[in-house]
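Hi X.,

You mentioned you wanted examples for the new student's onboarding notes, showing what a folding record looks like when two proteins sit in one file. Here is a clean example. The first protein comes first, with its sequence line followed by its structure tokens.
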Amino acid sequence: MRTKDLITRKLTEAFAPESLDVIDESDRHHGHSGHSPGGQTHFRIHIVAQAFAGKGRVERHRMINAALADEIAGGIHALAIHAAAPGEPAPTPR
């Protein structure tokens, strides 16, 4: 299973998101630390889920990192997270 598909499945199971977009940005990181010739190392996640209501940015990131702990330990080098609760403005990329 591709890493992107695994991330999508795990986040869907963990958070039942209203919306979820997982973007593989590995091709943008040739020559950078952590890049692998096969890709699947750098991802950007946009997720909206009720599970994030009342939680701050750091807690949301920790929740996502916990859900993806095996993937992070096993080869994901970079993970950009944009997490919001329903009705909140979408977080702006940093």
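Then the second protein repeats the pattern, sequence line and then tokens:
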Amino acid sequence: MDKTAFNVHTFEEADDTMQDYSNHTFRERLHIYWHLTSIAYKFDLDNPPKMDKTVFSMKKHQG
């Protein structure tokens, strides 16, 4: 684990660096969320990964 990737902050310092998204519209927050997700999972926003639908199956309930 790379311990140099993080810095120790006081609660006040951490709160000052946290951005407040409540004044953004829902669409803007959704775009920010999608952008951060693409960074975390390392995929291109213009070419997101496809869901593998072969993993799941459905059966009719025998009642």
